[in-house]
Write a structure and sequence with these properties.
The protein has about 180 residues and is mainly alpha-helical. The chain is built from seven helices and two strands; from the N terminus they run ααααααββα.
C-alpha cells in the first residue's frame, strides 16, 4: 500500500515531468491542437478542473465527508489496481463524453499558460500538505465519488490524482508531436 509520503512524492514527480514536457516544447506548444482533440494547454486546464474538487473535499472535516459519502467497507486497492481499473473505465468511455469537470473547456492562449501551471502547482502543493497529515485510518475509511470510477477511498483517489498527471503526459507525448 502506498504511504502518504509515496503518494505526495509521485504527485510532485509527475507535476515536474509535466512542466518539463511543456518547457521542452516551447510556448507555441500550449496551443497545439490535433484534429478533434484539446489543445495541449487544455490538458493542463483539465488537470486543474479535476483537481479543484478534490482539494475542496480534502478541506472539509472528515465527519462531513463520511456523512455525505459514507465509509468504506473494504480495504483500499493498490496503486496498480486503481490504475488498471481507471484504464479499463477509460476504454468504455464513449468518445465525446467528458467528465463534468471538463465539459466547458475554455480556450486558452499561450499567454495564460503560466497562470494555469501555477494554479495546478498550488493545488497539488495544498493537496500534498493535507495528504501528509492524513492517518492511514482516514485514507482507508473516508470515501469520495469519482465521476468515472464511482466511490473510491481517499487513498485510492489520491493515488489516482497522482497518476492522472502522468496519464495526460502520456497522451501529450503520443498524440501531440
Amino acid at each position: 500500500m502506498m504511504t502518504t509520503q509515496e503518494i505526495t512524492q509521485l504527485l510532485k514527480e509527475n507535476e515536474g515531468a509535466l512542466f518539463s514536457h511543456f518547457n521542452e516544447k516551447g510556448v507555441a506548444y500550449w496551443e497545439l491542437k490535433p484534429e478533434g482533440k484539446w489543445t495541449a494547454g487544455q490538458h493542463v486546464i483539465h488537470l486543474v478542473q479535476s483537481t479543484r474538487p478534490l482539494f475542496k473535499a480534502l478541506k472539509l472535516p472528515n465527519f462531513l465527508l463520511k456523512w455525505k459519502f459514507g465509509t468504506s467497507n473494504r480495504p483500499s486497492k493498490t496503486y496498480d489496481e486503481v490504475i488498471k481499473r481507471y484504464n479499463e473505465k477509460l476504454e468504455l468511455v464513449v468518445p465525446g463524453i467528458l467528465s463534468p469537470f471538463s465539459m466547458s473547456m475554455p480556450d486558452s492562449p499561450q499567454t495564460e499558460a503560466q497562470k494555469w501551471m501555477k494554479e495546478l502547482s498550488d493545488l497539488n502543493t495544498r493537496i500534498n500538505n493535507i495528504t501528509l497529515k492524513c492517518s492511514d485510518s482516514t485514507l482507508d475509511k473516508v470515501i469520495l465519488p469519482h465521476p468515472l470510477m464511482g466511490k473510491m477511498t481517499l487513498r485510492e483517489i489520491l493515488m489516482w490524482n497522482a497518476y492522472h498527471t502522468s496519464h495526460h503526459i502520456h497522451v501529450l507525448t503520443q498524440k501531440y508531436k
